[in-house]
Each structure stands twice: as C-alpha cells, then as structure tokens.
Amino acid sequence: MLDTRPDIVGLALPGMPEDSPGMGGDESTWESQPVVMITRDGTLEPYDY
Question: pTM score, two decimals?
C-alpha cells in the first residue's frame, strides 16, 4: 500500500470474528480475513495485498 498509494481514507476488516488476532481466542483457529479499502465517496473495494 505504501508503494501504490491508493487514494483512500482507510482500510477495514468487516465482520472480524472474536478469535481474530488481537481479539483473544485460540491462535490455531485464526484465518485470513478479507481487507477492504474505504474510498473517499464511502464505497468499499477489495484490497488485494
């Protein structure tokens, strides 16, 4: 993201379950979470990292 510098206002992890990293729970149940970009007009777009 620092290389491409998209014109966005932020990133989000919608629907983050309680066992996500930093949210407690058992590390063995952690899975990859989808990341979305929040654009200036408020729409959400997938962020492919």
Answer: 0.61
